[in-house]
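Obj.: predict assembly geometry.
Materials: sequence records (below).
Method: joint structure prediction, all chains together.
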Amino acid sequence: MPSFPADFLWGAATSAYQIEGSPDADGRGRSIWDTFTERPGAIESGGDARIACDSYHRWQEDLDILSEVGMKAYRFSLAWSRIMPDGRGRVNPRGLDHYERLIDELRRRDIAPIVTLNHWDMPEALMADGGWIGRSSVDAFVEYAVAASERLGDRVDWWITQNEPWIIQLLGYQLGLHAPGIRDLRGAVTAGHHVLLAHGRAADAMRPFTRGRIGVALNLLPCVPATDSQEDADAAWGSDGYVNRWFLDPLLRNGYPDDMRAHWERATGGPLDDVIRPGDEAAISGRSDFLGINFYTHRVMAAAAPGPDRPFPWQVVGSTGEVERTDEGTEIVPDAFRDLLIRVHRDYPGVPLIVTENGAIFGDSPTHDGEVHDVRRTRYLRSHVAAMAEALDAGVPLRGYMHWSLLDNFEWALGYRPRFGLVYVDFRTGERIIKDSARDYARIVRDGGIVAGADVRASQVDSLGAFG
Ligand code: FCB
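Observations (raw structure tokens):
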């Protein structure tokens, strides 16, 4: 029996800020990333996203590529500030017009739109009240979600309210490495809570306008102990609370996990009762029709004493020995991917799963023949498809897979250096070149997820020479 169901959503993902460019077109408002990219030193090589992949203009070309490589779904995001330029109140219909055209054209091509509402580009105007630290951000997000679903709700079957609450909290408000560039531990946990509360409230507010399924995309990182000591086991479990359970439990159970809440309260100097108010957890729980999982790697953890830059008693130490890595040094661990899918299903049963992101940085560029022979991305993709087949065979209700990313794009604080795309983008001209990995992915999709050559594990690379 084939592992992948016939209606499996094979696709690719992008986000508005990373590909669109055109920050001033059709009444778009300013977003926190427009401001952040202007901060000296914030973006590697000083890049910005004023043009990026120019997808605001070239979107039909992007859809042509999706069709050419046989994708069944496309995950993209709406730019919040195109729709709510002032953060609150006024809705900009021209922003919605753009996405309506995009969605209609996807549907005409039989490609299912998977629409993210917040892929990090909050309207700058909301910073007047602290961004996600301000509780009013929840109401602002609900206004936006209503505006989007009122117009688009009849033609979208899959909604993702929030992308990666932990990364918003961590990089945006704890470490200040992403917009809005704040470093405030208590502010960070507050922001993360409001992101989740906004999901719950928005999901309720959207229901009258859409029959589509509503979920959140979490970036989950399996946390494994570096040694078999009890201390490292505790460190891994603590880290799992910080990264994974802090978000999974309130969304898919009934509230925040006690062990991690105690860590947060210790690290931020007091109870969180003024942040997590009565009724909040009930408003977050039970509001997800599916879970989106963004998977990149695992975290190998060891015990460590807390200190000025370490709020919790653990640290990431990484693997020792030989591990395959991306060009950025990220460990490639498809077995951990399979185990994660099985674990999420075991611990949070009954929730359909979609892999909403998975991909890797490999810097391949066109060779003398004008083609991009990104062998390692192909291998990466195949090994992760094989991991999903194993998870499906183990009974995991997996509904789709969105490779990150369709296009090389603006990779946030890292600028344009990291290339995650199935499609190469020449950022000087905007020209797109379909990489070998995309063509191989097209074959996998055509064959219903069968990865020819059986053994596709990263360690068995050499047998894979001739997948063309
Ligand atoms: C995820 C983000 C996505 C992209 C990938 C590489 O954290 O959701 O926008 O940056 O990582």
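Conclusions so far: The chain has one domain: 9-464.
To do: check interface contacts against the pulldown list.
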